[in-house]
Amino acid sequence: MKFPRKYLPSMSVLCAFEAAARHQSFTGAALELSLTQSAVSRQIRALEELLGTDLFVRERQTVRLNKAGEAYAREIREALKRVSAATLGFRANPQGGTLNIAILPTFGTRWLAPRLPAFMAANPGITINLATRPEQFDFATEPVDAAIHFGLPVWPGAELDFLMSEQVVPACSRALRGQFDFQAPADLLKAPLLHLESRPDAWERWFHAMGVQAQGVNGMLVDQFALASQAAMSGLGVALLPRFLIEAELARGDLVLAIDAQVESAEKYYLAWRPSQASYPPLQAFRAWLAAAARQA
């Protein structure tokens, strides 16, 4: 795609504008960029002349972005991030390709990361960068090639590859199980239950699958699987957790099943990826490897 050069400000001008926008100060931008305040001011004025409008409100010795400047600053900041990410990726692997993967924290650390050495060994020319992103985002505006998604098969602007389903189980400490002597699913209603913010109705759905009437189940609220599992190990309550993510704790005895009753989650795990990258060899290799790894899990 050819870009009209007259609409492409220089990188130095854009960096000066981004710094001035962030600091809300030409002086602050000058200090950051090792320039004079007048040099930054000239670059901002040149950019405004190119755009045909002011970007800052100038009041005595201060400046602040106007509405147009705020909108333009957001766009430029994201563009500079993409340029920086592309450059760092190339420097890290000039002979191969780079994949930026967004992961879910617990899935990434407990399932994906231990398996990645096999992918790296089979694809030595590919560099993988990982970042935790628990929420959906717009691939069109983020420097991310693919993301692990848990939920329904919906991600606007992305393609999805099915990876796996999960079975959730009620897990707790051995002492808590002994204290309450759970014999049936309904017995769990007598114990403190731990709830994940991302799955607020998980317990209601589990009890429904067990044929137990349970409305408005209350208990401690936590925001991450790691915290939920640690709270359960510490005896704070019973947590409803994906079995494949706590196999190590169950094997060591740090966690036990409150009762052996598992339910398949309605949501599944998927790999979401940028459609424009469909023919990108590193992404093709990663998709094929991840699908095979998920089938073998």
Features:
297 residues; 13 strands; 10 helices; 3 domains; five-stranded mixed β-sheet; D-Maltodextrin-Binding Protein, domain 2; alpha/beta; six-stranded mixed β-sheet; 21% strand; Arc Repressor Mutant, subunit A
How would you portray this structure in words?
- The chain is elongated and about 75 Å long.
- Helix 1 (11-23) packs across helix 2, helix 1 crosses helix 4 and helix 2 crosses helix 3 (37-51).
- The protein has 3 domains: 5-89, Winged helix-like DNA-binding domain superfamily/Winged helix DNA-binding domain (Arc Repressor Mutant, subunit A, Orthogonal Bundle); 96-165 and 268-296, D-Maltodextrin-Binding Protein, domain 2; 167-264, D-Maltodextrin-Binding Protein, domain 2 (3-Layer(aba) Sandwich).
- The protein has 10 helices and 13 strands.
- The mean pLDDT is 92.
- Strands 7, 8, 9, 10, 11 and 12 form a 6-stranded mixed sheet that branches.
- With 297 residues, it is α/β, with parallel strands linked by helices.
